[in-house]
Every structure is written in C-alpha cells, then in structure tokens.
Amino acid sequence: MDIATTPTNPQGNPEIADAAPTPQDPPVIRREDYKPFPWLVPSTKLAFFLGLEETRVSATLKVEPNPAAEAAATLRLNGDGITPLAVTVDGEDTDAWEMDGPDLVIPLSAAPHEVSILNGIKPSANTQLMGLYASNGMLCTQCESEGFRRITFFPDRPDVLSVYQVLMEGDPSAFPILLCNGNKVAEGVRENGTHWAEWHDPWPKPSYLFALVAGDLVANSKPFTTRSGREVECNVWVRAEDLERTDHALESLHRSMKWDEDVFGREYDLDLYNIVAVSDFNMGAMENKGLNVFNTKYVLADPDTATDADFDAVEGVIAHEYFHNWSGNRITCRDWFQLSLKEGFTVLRDQLFSQDMRGEAVKRIEDVRILRAAQFPEDGGPLAHPIRPDSYREISNFYTATVYNKGAEVIRMMRSIVGEKRFRAGTDLYFYRHDGEAATCEDFITAIEDGAGVDLTQFRRWYSQAGTPRVTVRQAVEGDSLVLTLNQHVPATPGQPDKLPMPVPLRVAVHSRANGTLGDEKLIILADAEQAFTLPLDGPDPVVSINRSFTAPVVIERALQSEDLVFLAAQDNDPFARSEALQELAVSHLVGIASGEFSAAEQAAGEAAIIDAFRSSLADAALEDAMRGELMVLPSETYLFEVMASGARKADPGAIHTAREGLKSAIGAALADELQALHARASAVMLDDPAGRGARKVKTLALALIAAADPARAATLAAAQYDAADNMTDRQGALMVLCGLDHPARAEKLAAFHERYSDNPLVVDKWFTLQALSLHSDVIQHVRDLAEHPDFTMKNPNRVRSLHMAFAGNPKGFHAASGEGYRMVADVILALDPINPQTAARFVPALGRWRRIEPVRASLMKGELERIMAAGNLSRDTFEQVSRSLEG
Ligand code: B3K
Ligand code: ZN
C-alpha cells in the first residue's frame, strides 16, 4: 500500500491489542551473539491517521536481501503489544504470516519485496511513555531503544537504516501542528476537514531515531547560518503559555551549533531543526533526527521560575542532543551494547562545550562530583557493568552513569593521552570513516589510534572491565628527585573476579610546602600493576598534587598529612586540585569519625584543619564566588558510603550522616561571622550583575552552614532571603534551608511558594523535591503526606521523580534506621511498575546497594528487594534490576 496515494482513513474497527503480558524470566541478550539482519530496508513509508484514543498506522517497507548477512526465508519484524490488521506482500493481501511471541514473521523469498502492514494503537492508554503516546492533549513519540515496535512492526534494531517518508493526518483543531523528522514536503486539507502533512528525511536512520509530534504548539524561531552559509530554521515548540520561557533554549541551540563547527568541525545537515517540549517524558530529551523531543524541564527557563543550575542544565541538554546529530545519528550504534559509542562520546562533547561556556574548573568539579555520587556506587555494587556491557535482559536498564559518564571519562582519557590536536585528528577520521554507518566502540578506538597515531591495545580494557580502579600512592625523596610508586588494583565485580591493569593517565605536579613553590605539571601513565616514576623536586616538604583535573576515573588512596592537604587546598595552581584537596581532607575526616577510628584528639585536629581550609577559601579575595562555592561543598553521603565500605568494613549511613552534619555545624559555628558577612555581601549583588551567579551560589551555601550551627538565625536570614528574592535561585535556596528547620517560616514560605506557582508544573515539582530532600526530622511523614497531595500523580514521571526519586536520594530519610524509607521506595516500585516500568526500575539501584551497608540496614534493604521479587508479574525492567541486585 502506497501511503502517498492512500491518504484516507481506513474503514472498519477491528480490535486494537493492548500491552502484551510481561514474561517473568526474560531472555538474556549477549553481545557475542550479534548477527547482521538478513534484510536491508532501503525505504520506509509510514502513514498515521492520528487520534488520541486510537491511531491507525500503515507501514510500507521496501526490503531486499542483505548481502552481508546469512540469507533467511522469513522476514521477522519486531512488535510489542500490537497485532497486524492487514498484511500485504508486493501489493497482494496475504494470510501467510504468523506471530512468534510479540513478533510478526512473514515468509519471503530471497529477492526485493514490498511489505505493508496496517495496525492500530491507543496513545491515551500508553502509560509507559514508550512508542506513540498522549501528553497534555498532544501526541508524541519516544522510540529509543525499542519503542518503535510499539508503533508498527519493524526490524527495530539500530543497524537497520532506512529512508523515511511519513504522512500524518488528523483533526486540525486537535492537532494544528504536525511535525516529523526531516523536511516537510507537502501539506493539505481533505474534503472531510482533516489536514495532513508529508515529511521526508533524506538521511537513512535507525527506527529509534523516528519521531512525530502532533498538537497545539507555538514556536520560538531564529535561523542559524552554518559556516558554509546554509540557513537552518531553528524552532523551539511549546504550549502557548510557555513561549516566554524559551529564549535560553533557542540561544543554547545556536551556541551549540557554532561550537560544534569550531571545535569538532561538525556542521548541521538539514534545513530545519525542531525541538518540542513535552511534560510527560521518561528522561531528559531525545535526539530524533531533526525533531528533538524534550522534557519541558530542559527547555523552559526564566529567572523567575528556573535556578541558575536549571539554566545550565537546559544549555547542557540542548547541546547534548544537538551533538548527537553527528555522534549518534550520522554515525549510530551497531547494537545496543555499543551505546557508549554515542552516549559516552556525546557526554564528553557536552561537557567540553559547557566548560567553554561556563569555565573549565567549576564544570569539571561538578562533573566529577556527579561521577562519584552516581557512577562509583554503580561500579561498586551488584549492577556494575563495563561501559560496553556484555549482556542484558532489558536495554533500558543500561542507560546508566557507567555508560554515559564513565564512558565520557574513558574517551576523555584518550584525549588526555594524545593531546587535543591529535584527538581532533582521531575524531575527524572517525566521522569521515564511519559516516552513514552503524558502528562499534572498536571502530571508534581504531579511528583514534589511526588518526592520532597511538596504540590503544591495552587501553581497550577500559571498555571491557567494570569497577573503579584503586591507585595507591607512596612517595620517597631520593637526592633531588621524588620517587612516586604507584599501584593499581581493579576490584572484582559481578562476573569479573580477576582484572588486568589498565593505562591510567595522571597529571601530577610536585610542590614544596616549605618553599611555597609550585612544580610544573606532567602527565604520567601508570600501565602496570606497580610502577615507579621519578620526578624533579623543587624544595623540601614535597607535596604531590595528583590526578589533576581528574585525568583518570580512579580512587586515589594515600595517607597525606592534613598540613599537606591544607596547603594544596589553599595554594595549588590547579583550581580543581584545590577542591580535591579539600574533599580528601573531608573524606578522611568523616570516614574516620563514622568508623570510630579516630580518637577525640584526632577528631578535633581534623575538624580544625577543615575549618582552616574553609576559612582561607572564604577569605581568598582572588577567588571567584563560583569557585568559592565549589570549595564549600562537602562530599556527598553516597560517595562517603563508597569510601567507608572498603574491604570488610561496611558503610554506616547513620554514622556518616551524623558525622557530616556535625562537621557542617562545627564549620557554621567556627566561621559564623565570616559566613554571615559572605551572605550579606552576596545578598547585595543584583540579579543582572555578571558576578550574580557566583554570589547566589555562595549565598545559599553560607545559609546552609549557618543553619547547621544556629537554626534560629538561619531561619530569620532564610525568610528574609525568600522575601527579598527576585529570582528562583535565591527563592529555592532559602526554601531549601527552611525545609530542614522546625520554624514557623517553613510552613509559611512553603505555602506562599505553592500558591505563587500552582499553575507551573515544573515549579510545583521543585516544591515536592525541596520537602522530599529536606533534613527535617519528619521527612518520612512529609513524603507520605505529599504522596496524597492533590497535585501528586504516579502518571507523570517528573512528578514521581520530584517526590519519590528525591526521597530515595535523601540519605537521612531513605536510610532511616527503622527501614521505613526502604519500605516506601519498595512500595513505589511495586505501584509504579505496572504503569511505567522504565521509571520504576530506576528506583531499584538505591536498594541494590545493600551489600555495602552495615548488616542491620542491609537485611532490611534486601528484605524489600525480596518482597518485590515475591510480588511476581514484574516488568522485564524491574525483574532484571531486582534479580541482579539480589544475586550480584
Ligand atoms: N538517547 C536518549 C536516551 C534514550 C533513553 C532510552 N531509554 C537521550 C540522550 O542520551 O541523549
Ligand atoms: Zn545522549
């Protein structure tokens, strides 16, 4: 059936199938079993007859035998919860097909054919938000990884590339705007009043990059002229009431387009770039070719409703999705095991972009903080996997911090080893060599080797071994040199008991504490299990600054004297190293206290050293506030758990929390005057002052430290900050501090905030999150009550995350000694799994860390996982995560 010539709505009303039952023991898919698909699909024509309740989909695939694959006598097309209403082969209706589980199998001779299938779907009933679904009266899609098979039958795998032509037809009052990938080539109105648009995407693409959107939308538009002089129409589509908050997204897109030309030599390749914001979305955004679909959270921003951090996140995600146009779309993945090929590389590209936009050191500190808080625990737990996994049951579970963030670190290491210029030669070769292909991580590594002229044989282990390497450091003075002896050890992870050494690039410098001289930076590469490096010495009391700017994603283990760390924190010429020294000081102090290893005298000395370091960063006039703010952030509790849980020692969340709050209170008390002075100075900086961002950051950080020592004073200051605020950063910061306090201003300002923003869902999300993340002693009861609030719904992922995911990330509430926090999160998983399995499964890793936690809490956590398992009838997503968490 040729969709271009059959534009009317098909007649008849056969039953439209609903979701298929979920298997209890889904099969394991292995990387080593990869085989190319037996058929090529050079072109795909789709026709959509759109309706919120029911949408008809007609698909016509031109297929031909794939000369690179074993011949097959059948064509297997993936489906998920759909049934064919009609099938034709070469224009003839046929019954010669069968369903094999969810898939449609059609016998086919080894020759070119045209296969057409008609089916129907129910977008409004689609609560999983995969495939075609309804959001706020509009229709939109999410296909990565395997959502396209919920729309129509297709070889739904990333190595089948096809050119798509799509007809969309629907009621113009419900769906005035019809968008799809590529360019609009025709449009019109039928006699019956429906309107239609036909879209053509000239770039062959895998099905996961397909997208359509139909709804009542308006655009903020501004053309971008590429370096070769082509004009690209750039649109950010939103609901009319959100239009005024779209300038930042549009400008971010333009900055990304320019940066990718300048830094990676990549130019955009269509005349149109559409971004659509939807409020029901499982993740941040999706890089569909020419038609990115975004969570509203990463599009809408203005100072009244979005914090400075929200502005940064919008810019970063817009950049990320834009950069995918080359690292992901022009070159895609051969199979889902190669996910880091596009995600690791694209995260690195967006990190480098944001470093250029916002300052290298601050961005690097933020990225390392995320890595430590989110990825290190993954690497140390039952769900550990290499950046290129070897097997999965449900690929959605592998969109992880390991694949994304560690994947970016691994490619960043390549860049550090060869230098920026040679790395660019490597990426140029990669883009040239594999353009239009579905490639592998191995292809990427080989291109960097060939383009940059480097041997990465041993380096490949970073792709196959899971676990965060531990690097121990010993130092000895020999004459006028310093000998640095480094050992590396990669811990065992599930399925990988024995590891081999990997190349670990480390930027180092040797300073002299006695002379106050700072040594030159040098790159060393630790490749063996143990290796010694001789470095020049500048003076007495050498202090080694190591892993500067975090050249390798490893844990450095060394026993440095606190004077040395205080010296590095105050003096190092690498701002990243300064923040690292402070972190190292705080980590060893807090873990020492929490594990009961410190005497009272050691505790007092450690506290005094940290207070000294804080004092000097507060007093350092040469420091920008943005950087000062980074120095004021203590290590996260999840990272402290990781450090505390080493060898036979387990993490004690209660002791860590008490130690960390105790340190905050000691800092707040000792530096009360300095912190108040900082708060006052920062409060005087105006919104549009270029220094305003840094000032807003230190303002709330100062308030939080004051609150730990003097709650009453902090409450007064926070209430005043709230009342005076002319922006969301200050307002949210003040409310964050108030939420943790027992003070009448807490309820008063929370109510005012809700009333002011009750019609803005993104800000109402903040209202939920602030309460779920709070340090208040009744946080568990607050979360229980909020789950009953009329604004709460399990159907909207942003709302679920704003309350329950925030709570799961609140160590105080989640790890409450009673086990209530664990029970609440398990209840959320059970309630959410039938509605939205992808989002439900995201809650499992928090409980899955039980093995690293002290025995009483560990058994409570494990008990909840067992309760989930025993409930049965779990989705593939949740089943995989829970079973791995119990086995691993
Ligand atoms: N590629 C998408 C993520 C899709 C997740 C599917 N479960 C967004 C991104 O990484 O840019
Ligand atoms: Zn991505």
Oligomer: single chain
Helical coverage, percent range:
40-55%
Distance between the termini: 50 Å
Strand content: 15-25%
Query: Which whole number gives the mean pLDDT?
Result: 96
> What's the main sheet like?
8 strands, mixed
Radius of gyration: 28 Å
Overall number of domains: 3
What is the CATH C level class of the largest domain, in words?
Mainly Alpha
Strand order of the largest sheet: 6-5-9-3-2-12-15-14
By CATH, the topology of the largest domain is: Zincin-like fold
Small-molecule binders here are: (3S)-3,7-diaminoheptanoic acid, zinc ion
Instruction: Look at the structure and name the CATH superfamily of the largest domain.
Output: Peptidase M1, alanyl aminopeptidase, C-terminal domain
* Poorly predicted sequence stretches spanning 5 or more consecutive residues: 1-22
- Number of helices, counting only DSSP H or I runs of 4 residues or more: 28
Question: What is the number of E strands?
Answer: 31
How does this model look, in words?
- With 888 residues, the chain is α+β, with helices and mostly antiparallel strands.
- It has 3 domains: 36-130 and 138-210, tricorn interacting facor f3 domain (Immunoglobulin-like, Sandwich), CATH 2.60.40; 336-464, Neutral Protease Domain 2 (Neutral Protease, domain 2); 483-887, Peptidase M1, alanyl aminopeptidase, C-terminal domain (Zincin-like fold), CATH 1.25.50.
- The strands form 8 sheets. An 8-stranded mixed sheet has the order 6-5-9-3-2-12-15-14, with no helix packed on it.
- A hairpin with a 2-residue loop joins strand 5 (84-89) and strand 6 (92-93).
- Residues 1-22 have low confidence and may be disordered.
